[in-house]
Write a structure and sequence with these properties.
Blueprint lengths: L6 E4 L8 H9 L12 E6 L9 E3 L2 E12 L2 H19 L5 H15 L4 E12 L4 E4 L4 H14 L6 E2 L6 H11 L6 E10 L7 E4 L7 H8 L3 E9 L3 E6 L4 E6 L1 H4 L9 H26 L9
Antiparallel strand pairs: 1-6, 1-7, 2-4, 3-4, 4-5, 5-6, 8-9, 8-10, 10-11, 11-12
Helix pairs in contact: 2-3
């Protein structure tokens, strides 16, 4: 259990998880699966192979949001509708208009839906009431918002808000590059995206490229600002920080994963150890990152 991305939300101090109540809420909105005529179905899944909808270890909670989607390519529907339109044209000696073609597509979709393959995906969320974090393991904001929307629908009161810091990540990353100095505990890696302001928004990307030297500073002097920057924290976790405070491409380095080796005898023990290591390290990383970004912005009253 190692997250790959973090979309970060803040929980107020003192807020805690009532596990039994949360489990009951999520189970009432469980993923039921797609019906014969459904294109998509959403709901909660047990994070592990049991009946619990909230996995808890050391006061850290794990949730799993599930989506089932029917795989019905538009190209298949369009081709079948065109074939039927051609048959109508031959049999009745008339062209098929746009409205009738649209209706043919709808009928073809209704016929194919019950036989379409179903794809299921799960997106995980981590709740840390000890340090006040709620994080969704999603690379795209839309997927994180999908999870949060379902969570708000399932839970009466969820006082979560997006994390905001005193320094914007873009300005902070640009400053670190300009001075060549990373904040305490961090090193700058070799992945970078710089973007110019204005309508054209000229963009320069570096992949596995040394970021020292005059070339980077010249781009900054021209007005470009860092929008993505690869970083490593304490030689334990590497990641890509974005201008809108997303953490992507999380990689827990070997020195961290080696700490869990040899400690577990079963898959369940290994999962519990990995989850404890991951959440413990991420809490420390997030505290250091917020400090590097000037501290947290107070919540609006």
């Amino acid at each position: 259990m190692w997250f790959r991305n973090l979309q970060l939300y803040r929980l107020p101090a003192g807020w805690d998880v009532d596990v039994a109540a949360l489990d009951a809420r999520l189970s009432a909105h469980a993923l039921a699966g797609c019906g014969a005529m459904d294109m998509q179905s959403v709901g909660w899944l047990p994070p592990r192979d049991d009946e619990r909808f909230v996995y808890v270890s050391n006061r850290q909670a794990l949730l799993a949001f599930g989506v089932e989607q029917k795989l019905l390519p538009a190209a298949v529907v369009n081709q079948m509708a065109k074939d039927r339109a051609a048959q109508i044209g031959e049999q009745e000696g008339r062209p098929v208009g746009r409205r009738e073609l649209r209706e043919l597509k709808e009928r073809v979709t209704d016929e194919l839906l019950p036989r379409a393959f179903v794809r299921r995906r799960a997106t995980f969320a981590w709740i840390d009431p000890v340090h006040g974090w709620l994080a969704v393991d999603a690379a795209a904001k839309t997927k994180a918002e999908e999870v949060m929307g379902q969570l708000i629908k399932s839970v009466d009161e969820l006082p979560a808000r997006l994390l905001k810091t005193q320094l914007s990540p873009g300005a902070a990353m640009t400053g670190w590059l300009e001075t060549g100095e990373a904040p305490a505990g961090f090193t700058l890696d070799r992945d970078l995206e710089l973007r110019a302001p204005g309508d054209e928004r000229a963009t320069v990307r570096y992949v596995r490229h040394h970021l020292e030297g005059d070339e980077i500073r010249a781009h900054i002097a021209e007005g470009k600002q860092a929008t993505r920057l690869g970083m490593t924290w304490n030689d334990r976790i590497s990641f890509l920080l974005t201008e809108d405070l997303q953490i992507k491409r999380l990689a827990f380095l070997d020195i961290l994963k080696e700490e869990s080796e040899g400690q577990a005898e079963t898959d369940e023990e290994r999962f519990e150890i990995d989850f404890a290591l991951m959440t413990g390290e991420l809490a420390k990383l997030l505290e250091a990152l917020v400090e590097a970004l000037g501290g947290e912005m107070p919540a609006a009253s």
